[in-house]
User: Fold these one by one.
Assistant:
Number 1:
Amino acid sequence: MTTLSSSRALRRATVLAALLAGGAATSDAFAQGPAPAQAPAPTPQQVQKATSAFQAGTRLFQAKKFALALEQFKSSYDTVASPNSLLYIARCQAEMGSLNESFKTFQRVIVEAEARQDKYGQTRDSAKVEIEELANKISVLTVNVANAKDSTRLKVGGAIIAKEDWGKQLPRDPGPVDVVLETDGLPPVSQSLTLAKGERKTLDLAVPEPKKEEPPPPPPPSDDSSGPSGLLIGSLVLGGIGVAGMVTFGVAGGLSLSTYGEVEDKCGSQPGGKCTAQADLDTIDQGEQQQMIANIGLIVGGVGLAAGATLLIVDLAGGGSSSASADVGEVSVDLQVGPGYAGVRGRF
């Protein structure tokens, strides 16, 4: 009897292995992605354990004890990764109100059942129907990213989306959502959406190309010459004329004083102190000419020095610019020339 029971249990385990075996790697894709790698064939003991948990979960599910049923189906799937157990996990999540999680699980069911459609074709078809019904209760957003860089990050509702989920359907609660595409060193690309219940929205975003740095424009040609400014040259020229005039004044004035001294010595001894000789009169004329030359030298020298000093002050106040004017800020410099004098007057 014991041998018969063991034989029956072994045959039952072998039959159920056809339904539960064929484990697959998990994926968050929806009807796309590479086929998952086949796991090692489960042992009869693993099949029996998975079958027992699956049957317990089915009874609890029918009794609407979805939380307890979910635990049993997860235990069955962890023992033998069967799309059938995963299908009931998605159904339990939907019944418990976790619609977004249920949507993701249905996506996994479709991928894993598609990889073994010879055994799980019906499971795949059921998952496709149920995920469409579920999509009418939530919102589904697909974000396509173009020109992505290694540092590009996609955030939907503040949560970072894994790169393998870009371009795939993302379950969302209806309402507003912010989508941000971030790349190091580049401005973010963002868009705000409001998703309606049952809406399927596709959003295309692209990482902006970095702006090419253009070389700065060449500096404008400078008006300043490397040599002295025109004002400085003018001040030197006028200063030279002024010095020459003062030298002329000194020389001619000295000669004039000498001549007048000679005339005074000759004519002072004559009656009345008057010169009568023609030679003395010629000497007087010579002295007057010398005095006139001295006066002219004095005027030219004074004007030259004053004008030269004025141009020098303006040049220094204007920073050596040849275009500097006589008015610098609140300072005004004027050249004053008059009969018998020359000078510079400044106003502050």
Note: DSSP finds eight helices and ten strands in the chain.
Number 2:
Amino acid sequence: MKKILSTILLTMTLLSQTVFVNAAEPLKGTVIENDYVKTTDDDIFTGKVETLNRKEIINMTVSQVLDSSYSVEGDEFFAEVTDDVYGDKGIVIPKGTLAHGKLSNTTAPGKMGKEASMDLTFDYIVTPDGREIPIEGQMTTKLHPITQGAKIVAQDLGYTVAGGAVGGLMALNWLGLEAAIASQGYTLAGGAAIGGVAGLGVALLRKGNHVLIAPGDEIKVKINTQMDLPVYKETALKQEEILYDGLTININDVKHEKDPFGEVNTITLTVLISNMSDKTLSGFDMALVNDYNAKFSPSIFGNTKLMFRQIKPGDKLVENVSFAVDNINRKFWLTFYDRKNSQVITKISVDNAYRNLPEKVKNKNKKIRTKGQNFKKEDDFMDMDF
């Protein structure tokens, strides 16, 4: 229900906003020949080589919906790398790299609350500079069987919690100490006493849920390939920006956060603005624009000070501003428009700023994006009772 309400609000916001064409330029350092733009290796790579080891984990998001209720084995799809992959010498797989995948195995929901599952395999990636690299990668939605069983027992015995230690003892005796600890608080110190056996009966009969992976969901893909890859120059990976004389805008921090409905779709920026130009900026003429040219206005659920402020020539400030977006893993630009003619005054890349953030901040954002993600499919909106 939270996802449905959040989706409705986001859809209404998107319908009320405009879309403009992103005048993206090719990578810097190019040569022109016969009206075609070509990029040389010297423009992109440092000349160093890094070995990508086996068992490397790469964060990705899929380009289309994968649903265990109708997706079948053999279905092909593309996924996109959501975080730069670093070696000791620099970036070897940049954000935005595409990965080709197939649905290699599916299982239907089963009794005892066993969830459906999907196994994904990946065979090659296509980097932003057009190189196709063979890989072996895999990802599964399956939970560890011990952990999954512990959650089933814990949840169903929880229907009749009345104190005592029977539930915890059952988890210990049937599934072992690891399962008892993993059973969401139903440890030896507590659990279901009265009705415990009846609760277990529900667990034996209850059927699990289908699983769904949608664009914006972050998946962790384990790479089973060891290969040598060239290291990218930082300058080659920088996104295009539009600057205005006398106007300095720095993005000092980027936080990924949950909206009031619990969905991780909010980007909060800490912005430093020094306006020594001839322009007056308005918070109402500010937006976050992604690489699909979708435009997102500031969120009313975040700090609204910057939204309702005019930034006149001579003003200097540091403020937070939040944006609710459709896919937190896309590339974004903080953009200000001229109210008189709707032309872009300045466009600052969030990705460029993100690469300079401390690893502690990046790891915290990763944790928020993936915390508690189990790909459980919620009831269809049309099937709900009101």
Note: Residues 1-5, 7-38, 144-204, 381-386 have pLDDT under 50 and may be disordered.
